[in-house]
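Re: folding output
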Amino acid sequence: MTIQLKDLGKAVLETEYAVRGPIVARAQELERAGKEIIYCNIGNPQALEQKPLTYLRQILALCQYPELIEQGDHHFPADVVETAKALLKGTKHGLGAYSESKGVRFIREAVANFIAERDGIEADPEAIYLTDGASKGVQTALRILISDPSDGIMIPIPQYPLYSATLTLYEGKQVNYYLDEAHNWKLSHAMLEMSLQEAKRYGVKVKAICVINPGNPTGNLLDYDNIAMVIDFAKAHNLAILADEVYQENVYLPGDKFTSFAKVMAEKGEKDVSLFSFHSCSKGFLGECGQRGGYMEIRNIPEDVVAQITKLQSVSLCSNLTGQVATYCMVHPPKAGEPSHALYVQERDTILNAMKQRAVILAEGLNKVPGVQCNVVAGAMYAFPRINIPEGRTDAEYCMSLLEATGICVVPGTGFGQVPGTAHFRTTILPPTQKMREVVERFAAFHASYR
């Protein structure tokens, strides 16, 4: 027989992922027809001219083709060669063989050291799983938590569609809690309580709360006290926490700094709240989306449950080895005094300083447009401006019209969730600086004509 749409499961048919939806499909059609398209729809840095880090790519080259080390004619710095040798030894059989299910132990030890140095706390390599990007870790955590159609997960609104899509696919309940746009997208304890009680009223068994920090799509950053509040809330209601921290290097405002949920939990001495934390080499300043590297760290989870997580990981045998090596490069950069250090710092700072500049250009530029309000971009790679549009029009129609008129590809706010009666869109800060200025100019002219 030939499979038909009616043969597919309801969960598959109802799953949506707005970041690669119909507007992007139309953008690709227009591009094939010769129109210039500026893709601001997805956090894909190297597709928008961000250069890969030399250090990471040199190590990948040597690990993929070790003969270069043996031949000695590669002209790579000595510390790169030694790092590649250590990685190849750690994998035992090179990048073409499976690793253990959790990932190469040598690399997991490096991740544990990274967490310990970042937070000043202990980290266990056996509590770390190397994953094909952070997305796979998130999906594993949600698969573990959802055991019944009445099980629910609290997710921020606006959210990253990975969460809504995965919850639909796994047939769990999405429990929305709204971020406070009027106060730079902060979390409110009152809103968390309201969301939880509303879910319980409808018979939903809430199992966990997800927090994205720095925020996607909102560009906000949570402080220590806000994180501590979420941990206390989770403990009071017997919830696990999913901490999506993939943008932890993307912090832009003077005086701000990233604080991890693991750090706050350890400093509070909290042992009764299960924590899943996620990081990725796709974001930050590496932008290595195509390498598909990342990790999940777990805390306060019983051994019998850990065994089930490992079992799920083993179904895919292991994450890809190239991504594991990219993750190692993320958590183990060259140190001061090593031959690669100066170039690494220069490339890193160039990327981050450009993002800081573009964050200001975008937010300030949008706020000069009548009918648009945009919060400061404190972190991550996005803004989520609010737009006033004519009655009867939708944000999806607005974004499609924006694409057709200007070539700017953004995602409507409905794909992320928003307060009813409001309209938004998500845009990245990733186009090159001059192109970012052009985006703002094109958008301002379009918005004036659209209204």
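--- second protein (sequence, then structure) ---
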Amino acid sequence: MARTRSRRPRPTVGLPLLDIPFRQPRPPRPPYDWLSADDLERIHTASLEILETVGIDFLDDEALDLWQRAGAHVDRTARRVRIDRDLLLPTIATAPASFRWRARNPAHDVVIGGGALAFGPCGGMAYAADLDRGRRPGTMADYENLLRLSQSCHALHFAAWEQVTAQDVPVSARHLHRVRAAFRLTDKVVMEAAHGRVIPADTLAMMRLVYGDLDGDPVTGDVINVNSPLRYDERMLGGLISYARAGQVTFITPFILAGAMSPVTMAAALAQQNAEVLAGVALTQLVRPGAPVIYGGFTTPIDLRRGSPAFGTPESAWAALVGGQLARRYGLPYRGSGGLTSSQTADAQAANESLWSLWPAVLAGTDLIMHAAGWLDGGLTVSFEKFILDLENLAMFGHFLNGFTIDDDALALDAIAEVGPGGHHLGTDHTQARYRTAFFPTTLADRQGHDAWLAAGGQDAAQRANTVWKAMLAAYEPPPLDPGTAEALDDYVAGRERELTNVRLYD
């Protein structure tokens, strides 16, 4: 089925976030290697020893069958698999180093791997929050508004992930409503849950209604979370096998809280992360050699005084940087996270921790940076105000990474000679010709003097973000969707919603 191209949102005075072109930033310098080659090799070797001697639990019969046929050491009673390096390394070598992820609008296709960054929104939040209504259980209306914001700002390259759980929709039907809303309200790349086998099967069926044949480039995908330490549960394995078999994307991502799900030292946490990822990557290739798969890193310390995750720390920055090195060692695209914070509100703590997540992810050469907008409250809440604050940061990263030009025109020696010592450049032809485009056009920053700021209402950044997300929703225009496709999606959702009442989704 032919894909459609969308109209650009109406330019809106005072909202430069709406005018950002869709492009993937490409860092002008190689990724930063934190570890020496020898230290990286020690982590690699430790990971192989974990896989060969301790092993990984795979709580799914089909997964055990795949490993047994491949020649791994399978203990079916314990459901544990030990993987020799001579099996593991040739198997992961069939995974692609890069791939194109198709969007409904071809102009919004995303390339994963090869040096370009892609930013995705937060996902999996149970609560939504804004300054008007406070924190409350997420609803379908909240989810749809977050889709509209994700579609409108091209600093985000993905529009549809489960930015918030629609708790007013029955559990059995949530995935159906999410996918339909993603196609109605966006034309960017769609991600949908890889949970069990029923949800991926429905997702793939709805993708075929929009894209037709799925034997080409991938059109959907999702995170496969390892149940650390060293265990893949039935739900995640069902999703991994279903998506890999269909040639769709999986992000193999342990969620390791060092000190709880791994030893407290970062060296041990990273060795365990690497073992868990490599086992999952290898399984995708046993299912379908060449299936697109991403090396995922989400290792961070636990707050040993409280038992809660600690985000935006120096230790999590080390993990992000070394995760990128490890992914490059195996020729795999790398997924990291940015915008992470434990703060309960969009305050200075949230800003500091978020940037301590984003900067290491960018320096690490991360190909896909998830949770880049909206994350709050340790991942329990999506904040509309923080969503906008994060979008501004992503836009600034895009501007920064594009760099600046050095040529005769940019050096402006004639303008320097014209003004000479002691003058100013505000009125020169050189400045006037570049007045609108010379610098990053902020949407949120307030640079007035104190008296002018007070006279304008004395708003802080979160209050200004509140105004901006409402203005963005007011300016939103849905991308076109073929009426026949829309009707087919409606029919599918209605039929499956009836069939799935009281069905266990994760079987």
